[in-house]
Amino acid sequence: MPVKRSVFFVSDRTGITAETLGHSLLTQFDSADFRHETLPFLDSEDKAAKAVARINACAEEEGEKPIVFSTLVQDNLRDIVMRSRGLYLDFFEAFIGPLERELDLKSSHTAGRAHGMANSQSYTQRIDAMNFALANDDGVNTHTYTRADVILVGVSRSGKTPTCLYLALHYGVFAANYPITEEDLEKGGLPELLLHHKAKLYGLTIDPDRLEQIRNERRPDSRYASIRQVRYEVSRAERLFQLNQVPFINTTRSSIEEIATTILYGAGLKRRFF
């Protein structure tokens, strides 16, 4: 019977940092069943008190301490939420104090810095990369591939689009994607337009059983989603990658973060901002 616990992510801004760090820690506990709730924009004592009431009600209802991940910056707000009936885990308190002592400096205690637009050039780079990914999705605008840092190739529904968008948003990488069609697989070679950009290609593959499931959600009971068809496409695509020395990754059991990071380093790409 898995352990069931409620988890709260509290923040004076969006809660993105608390969610990201908290989720990373929770993945180490496979046998637990966590229920997540984010309480963002706790920027006043009144809102902090309401968050405490929500956490305490959950503790009363479930008979267990909720886990509370916090990135609250202001001391008065932290003091309020810390008095809740949850297990309070403060990311900033854990790291800001040691950094202040090491640097012999006081931190600014400014809310929202982790995801603010501190560098306008980096922000513009991300937007440009996102626009490029959207404009070059699914083989559209192949004439702009000269500008691409990487071109993801793979059969339909293997994860190309979300990976391109993640590379753009988080790394500023200009990522395009091209779908390997049944016609390409029958010919047995890379499409001619990709041959000119072979050094930029990175393949995505996926287990046939998982691909069948994904495609059936899109087009149930179709040839496109049949196990015979997906097995054919996956095996031929992987053979195509191997024959043309295109590096590739199986996306079945990897998160989007893992897929994107593997491609970033496997393709020798540089992130454009920090």
How would you summarize the topology of this molecule?
Layout (H helix, E strand, L loop, with lengths): L2 E8 L5 H11 L5 E8 L5 H18 L4 E4 L4 H8 L4 E4 H13 L16 H16 L14 E5 L5 H12 L3 E5 L2 H6 L4 H4 L5 E5 L2 H11 L8 H17 L4 E3 L5 H11 L8
Parallel strand pairs: 1-2, 1-3, 3-4, 5-6, 5-7, 7-8
Helix pairs in contact: 2-3, 5-6, 6-11, 9-10
Description:
- The chain is of the alpha/beta class and about 270 residues long.
- The chain folds into 2 domains: about 5-115, Rossmann fold (3-Layer(aba) Sandwich); about 120-265, Rossmann fold.
- The chain contains 11 helices and 8 strands.
- The protein has helices spanning about 15-25, 45-60, 75-80, 90-105, 120-135, 160-170, 180-185, 190-195, 210-220, 225-245, 255-265; strands at about 5-10, 30-40, 65-70, 85-90, 150-155, 175-180, 200-205, 250.
- Strand 3 (about 65-70), helix 3 and strand 4 form a beta-alpha-beta unit.
Task: Give a quick summary of the entry.
The chain is 46% helix and 15% strand.
Percent of residues in helices: 40-55%
How far from one another are the termini? 42 Å
Q: Beta-strand percentage? A: 15-25%
Mean pLDDT: 90
Q: What overall form do the CA principal axes indicate?
A: elongated
| CATH hierarchy class name of the largest domain | Alpha Beta
Stated plainly, the CATH topology of the largest domain is called Rossmann fold
What's the gyration radius in Å? 23 Å
* Contiguous helical run count: 11
Taken together, the total number of domains comes to 2
The class by helix and strand makeup works out as alpha/beta
Question: What is the β-strand count?
Answer: 8
CATH second-level architecture of the largest domain: 3-Layer(aba) Sandwich
What is the element string, with H for helices and E for strands? EHEHEHEHHEHEHHEHHEH
